[in-house]
Amino acid sequence: MDCLTRESGWESDINIMNGSDRTALFVGDIKWNDLPDKVKSRALICLLDNLGVTMAGTLAPISKIATPFAVSNWGGSEATILLYKCSASAPGAAFANACAGNALDLDDDAIYTRGHPGAQLFPAALAVAEKVGSGGRELLEALVVGYEVSIRAGRCWHDLHEVYQSCGSWGSVGCAAAAAHLLKLNREEIKNALGIAEYHAPNAPMMRDIYNPTMVKHAIGWGAMNGVTSALLAKSGYTGMPGLLGMEKYYDWVSDIGETYWMTDWVFYKEWASCAWGHAAGVAVLELMIEHKVTPAQIKSVRVKTFEEAAMLYQGYPTTTEEAQFSIKWPLACLILDHELGPDQVLEERFNDPEVLAVFDRIEMVVDPEIDQLYKEMKEMDLRMHSAVEITLQDERVLDSGVIERGADRYSEQDLENKFRKLAAFVTDPGTVNKLVEMVWNFDSIENVRKLTNLIK
Fold it and tell me: Can you tell me the distance from the alpha carbon of 305 to that of 299, in angstroms, rounded to the nearest whole number?
């Protein structure tokens, strides 16, 4: 099914196009009114979720460092840095807001990417939309472009690179595509923008940071900044290399762009502020506690069986929010006590809580051969994680969850609105939260995106 309006002659040219040509056509020609209703609905959901996690992420130390840095080094008045009463150039605002977007690890995931697209796409698109005075529909179009290009770029990227590279790598290409759409680049300029972004994409070795968590994390800020900068360079005549989306070996992975929309069913949202590798253990613990009416005081020890990579997540007491998120033991201890996992659990104010530390000390991580093999055999579209938990009670009874599967998280619009309201309430008043919710659900009728940013400067 072809869902977009094509210019005359497009159908006759389609067979001689490579993946780069098809991608450039999609990026340049997409129109909101031509999109299927399911795509429009998903774009609004993604906008709301990314707005909420970005707002809450301003509470984290990385945001408090990235913002003054962006103002000092990428200064200007082109785009708003949310909730800081300041602005910067479009690349600078994209960088600062993207650092906030991923700061709590509550931002969305997507198929094939092995990471987080939305936390970089939303800040990149918002910054360029403010710079050029775009309306709501244009921003939503850019988000659709960004997700569809990111999913395909991520798939190709992970196939091409032996070392697992984090989100800002392939995300640079998706952000460049979103920015190129808003800047109304022509097809040759779009291909240049994607090629520039790919060439300058960060070499971000994901596992090295997982073992030693720091603010470099997923390279989200760099991906957003690089994507916006690359599109602006292309608009100025700067040329880029042929991109991986144009490689013959990947044509089948790219040829459906503009016809198949992967974002409709394959973007996933996070309930908990932590690495998804530990979520199956969290589900297992909560199910056992609820089923057997277990209180934290009754728990003598917890044994978590998982796969090798998850067992390598940070094992010590966290001293930073990144260490708290790239952990299984800390989030699990918080879930046992609070039955939730958000800003209150992963920001520094909680790290000296004696109750959490006491539960933390009772948790043991082990690699389970069966679960490790399940992870190794996981296919591209099989996004299920597995874990098993044994809870030993003070009376020596052992509660065994068996192997628990945690699939990719999908939530209803109401669930995600509730998530947004909860997160936004950390940083703004109830009246503003209500206005933001109403505005986002009707965002395709907004004449200028500054109507949104003016509410949350």
Answer: 17
DSSP reduced 3-state for 80: strand
Which H or E run includes 268?
A: strand 267-268
Look at the alpha carbons of 263, 264, 266, 272 in this order and tell me if their dihedral is positive or negative.
positive
Q: What is the DSSP-derived secondary structure letter of residue 327?
A: B
**Pairs from 317-320 (Cβ < 8 Å, separation ≥ 24):** 317/351, 317/357, 317/360, 318/351, 319/348, 319/351, 320/61, 320/213, 320/214, 320/215, 320/348
On the question of pLDDT at 300 being above 60, the answer is yes
47, 122 contact by CB (below 8 A): yes
Strand segments (E) across 284-428: 299-306, 363-367, 385-393, 398-406
Architecture of the structural domain at 10-271+427-456: Orthogonal Bundle (1.10)
- By DSSP bridging, strand 299-306 and strand 363-367 are parallel
- E runs forming strands in 334-379: 363-367
**Position 225, amino acid:** M
Please tell me whether residue 369 adopts helix, strand or coil conformation.
helix
Domain 276-406, architecture per CATH:
2-Layer Sandwich (3.30)
Per-residue confidence band for 380, with pLDDT thresholds at 50, 70 and 90: confident
Examine the pLDDT at 12 and tell me if it is beyond 70.
Answer: no
Residue 14 pLDDT more than 80? Answer: no
Kindly list the domain boundaries of the chain, sorted by start residue.
Answer: 10-271+427-456, 276-406
Strand 385-393 relative to strand 398-406: parallel, antiparallel, unpaired? antiparallel
